[in-house]
C-alpha cells in the first residue's frame, strides 16, 4: 500500500481508535517509522488525546438533579392527574392573571348591558336611525346658535369701538354767559357722571332692540 | 443491584411512574451537565442548560422510540440541539464580549483521587477546556462527543445528523487542532 504523510494525517483518528484494517495498520506503522514528522504528529496527538480521554467527568452541583425533578414535578401522567391543581402556578403569572381579569370584566360589562342597559328595541335599525337623526339636528341647532351668538358679540364689539369717536361724547364746551340776558339762570356744565349716564343710555339703545326699554313703559294713548 | 435499562425506565415514566423519572434524571444529570459544561465552558450556563434539557425531555419523552436507538443517544441529541440554540443565541454576546473569550472554570472532579492527581487532573481539565474554547463549534462538539463523552461514531452520526465520513473528518481535524493548541499551552503527551 502506498502510504504517505497525507494519508497518515487523514487516518490518524482511525489509528488512535484502532479502526485501521490489518494491512492499513501495517502500512501506517511502516510510514511512521520512516517519517520523523509523522512519527512526531502521531505521538503528539495520540498522547494528548489519550490524556483528554482519561479526564474524570466533572461533578454536577449536588442540588441540580433535585432541582430538575422539582421543576419537572414527576411524570407527565402525574402532572395530568393533578388536573386543575396543576394549573395553579400558571394561574398566578401576571400575564395570565391580567388576561383572566380582562375576560371577567368583559363578561361583567356585557351582562350589565343586557340587564340594565338599552333594551333590544333600542338597538333596532329604526331606533338607531331616529337617534342619529335627532343627534344630527341637535348638533346643527347648537352650531347655528353658536354662530348667532358670535355674530351679536362681534356687532357689540364693533359698535363699542365706534362709540368714543362720536362728537357727542366729547366734553361739551361751556357756553359764554350772555351779558344781554343777566336774569336768565346760568347753565351748569354737565358732570362726568351725567356724561356716563348718557353714554350708558346710548349703549343700551345700541344693544336693546327698538320697542324695548328698561324703564317702565309709559302707557300709550289711544290717540 | 441490577440497574433497570433506560428503555424500561422511559416506558414506566410514560405510564406515570414518578420514581422512574427521578431515577432517569439522577442517572443522566452528570452526563448532560458535562456535555453542557464542556461546550459552554461556564458552570452557570451548564446548570441552566441541563435543566432546560430535562424539561424538554420531560415534555417530549413519549416521542422517544427505543427502536430508533439508545436513550443516551436521543438524550444527547436533545442536549446538542439546545446547545446549538444557545450558541446562536449568545453569538452576539460573544462578539461584543470578545475580551472575555476565555470562560471561567469551576472544576469539581470526581472524588476518590489523590490530591496530586486531583490537582493535575484539574489543571489539565482547565487547559483542555481552554483548548476546546478555541476550536470551532463543529470540531468542538465532535471531539467532546467522542473523547469526553466516549460515544461511538455511529452514535455521533445519529446525534449530529451528518454522514459518518463527516463525523470522522471532524473528529480527526478536531483532535489534531486540539493537540496543537494543548502543546502550545505546554501540555505534554502521556
What is the name of the CATH topology of the largest domain in chain B?
Rna Polymerase Sigma Factor, Chain: A
Q: What radius of gyration of chain B results from the CA coordinates? A: 18 Å
Uncertain segments of chain A: 184-190, 211-223
* Biggest chain pair interface: A-B, 40 and 55 residues
Question: Treating each run of at least 4 consecutive H or I residues as one helix, how many helices of chain B?
Answer: 9
Quaternary structure type = heterodimer
How far the N terminus sits from the C terminus of chain A, by CA atoms, comes to: 152 Å
Q: SS-based structural class of chain B? A: mainly alpha
Query: What is the mean predicted local confidence, pLDDT of chain A?
Result: 75
- Count of alpha and pi helical runs of chain A: 10
CATH hierarchy class name of the largest domain in chain B: Mainly Alpha
Report the helical percentage of chain A.
55-70%
Mean pLDDT of chain B: 85
Shape of chain A: elongated
Whole-number total of structural domains of chain B: 2
Largest sheet, strands/sense/barrel of chain A: none
Helix content of chain B: over 70%
Shape of chain B: globular
Question: Can you describe this structure?
Answer:
The complex is a heterodimer of chains A (223) and B (190). In chain A, helix 3 crosses helix 4. Chain A starts with a helix and ends in a 16-residue tail after the last helix. Mean pLDDT of chain A is 75; it is low at 184-190 and 211-223. The radius of gyration of chain A is 56 Å and the shape is elongated. By secondary structure, chain A is an all-alpha fold. Among the domains of chain A are: 5-53, no CATH class; 64-115, no CATH class. Chain A is built from ten helices and no strands. The longest helix of chain A is centred in the middle third of the chain and has 38 residues, at 125-162. Chain B is mainly α. Chain B folds into two domains: 1-97, Rna Polymerase Sigma Factor, Chain: A (Orthogonal Bundle); 114-185, Orthogonal Bundle (Arc Repressor Mutant, subunit A). In chain B, helix 2 (18-40) packs across helix 4 (71-89), helix 4 crosses helix 8 (153-160) and helix 7 crosses helix 9 (164-184). The model of chain B is unreliable at 98-111 (pLDDT under 50). The interface between A and B is large, with 40 and 55 residues.
